[in-house]
Write a structure and sequence with these properties.
The structure is a single chain. The chain is built from nine helices and seven strands; from the N terminus they run ααααβββαβαβαβαβα. By secondary structure, it is an alpha/beta fold. The chain folds into two domains: 82 residues, no CATH class; 132 residues, HUPs (Rossmann fold). A five-stranded parallel β-sheet has the order 5-4-1-6-7, with helices on both faces. This is YdcF family protein. InterPro entries: Cell_Envelope_Assoc (IPR051599), DUF218 (IPR003848), Rossmann-like_a/b/a_fold (IPR014729). Keywords: Membrane, Transmembrane, Transmembrane helix.
């Protein structure tokens, strides 16, 4: 019964509602022998495929499985890339919090620090007027968890993966780090590695923040439109990877 409620619920709110409305419009137009119905039908199919979880899983899966976290990572510095932050939301010891992606990356970075005691470079600046400075928020939270201040280097000017890599390389060169362990979301790792490689920075990938399970499961919920942005996330990465080739 609970699954049936979830099924109905997804068609009462966007994007499922839009898919349902366009599907009905297409059906009515086709019944009236109007060619415009085929166009609406095609748009409806594309909208449906773009909003069901299965499509997102199929697109994200190859990205997230490109690299596996090493059991015993070896390097001389941890590099974490930012992934979004709020500006003035209340936190336990200040204002501003990291987004879900960035918070997952920070948690992994902290656990790696506990294991390796390596210094940390946090790369991420203020992306939008209402965004927090990701690296500064991350440092505050790491220090609150017990990481010494002098172990955390803040790079707070980057707003893209390209500037993450370029600005981090400057710090690596200045501090004489040569074996960085890169921490970012698994779906983002292929593009991040390519970007660092273009600057002749060889990183050890340590992916985290997985969006889909390693084993792809097929069940009815995979075919119901969802408000999640997995397809958008995947397409953004593929476009970024393509752009990195030039």
């Amino acid at each position: 019964m609970e699954y049936m409620i979830k099924f109905i619920y997804r068609f009462l709110l966007p994007p499922g509602l839009f898919v349902l409305v366009f599907a009905l419009a297409s059906f009515v137009l086709l019944r009236k022998k109007q060619r415009f119905g085929h166009l609406i039908g095609g748009m409806t199919l594309l909208m449906y495929l773009a909003t069901i979880p299965l499509t997102g899983s199929l697109l994200i899966h190859p990205l997230e499985n490109r690299y596996l976290p090493p059991a015993h990572p070896k390097g001389d510095v941890l590099v974490m890339l930012g992934g979004g932050a709020t500006l003035d939301t209340p936190d336990m010891n200040g204002k501003g919090q990291l987004s879900g992606d960035a918070a997952n990356r920070l948690l992994t970075t902290y656990r790696l620090y506990k294991q390796t005691k390596l210094p940390i470079i946090l790369s991420g600046g203020k992306v939008y007027p209402d965004s927090g400075i990701e690296a500064e928020i991350g440092k505050r939270q790491l220090v609150a968890l017990g990481v010494p201040k002098n172990k955390v280097i803040v790079e707070k000017k980057s707003i893209t993966t390209k500037t993450n890599a370029r600005n981090t390389k400057t710090i690596l060169d200045h501090q004489h780090f040569v074996h960085p362990i890169l921490v970012t979301s698994a779906f983002h790792m292929p593009r991040a590695v390519m970007t660092f490689n273009k600057l002749n920075v060889k990183v050890t990938p340590y992916p985290t923040d997985y969006l889909v399970s390693k084993r792809l499961a097929i069940y009815p919920g995979q075919f119901v439109p969802s408000e999640g942005g997995t397809v958008y996330t995947a397409l953004k990465e593929y476009v970024g990877i393509l752009a990195s080739l030039f």
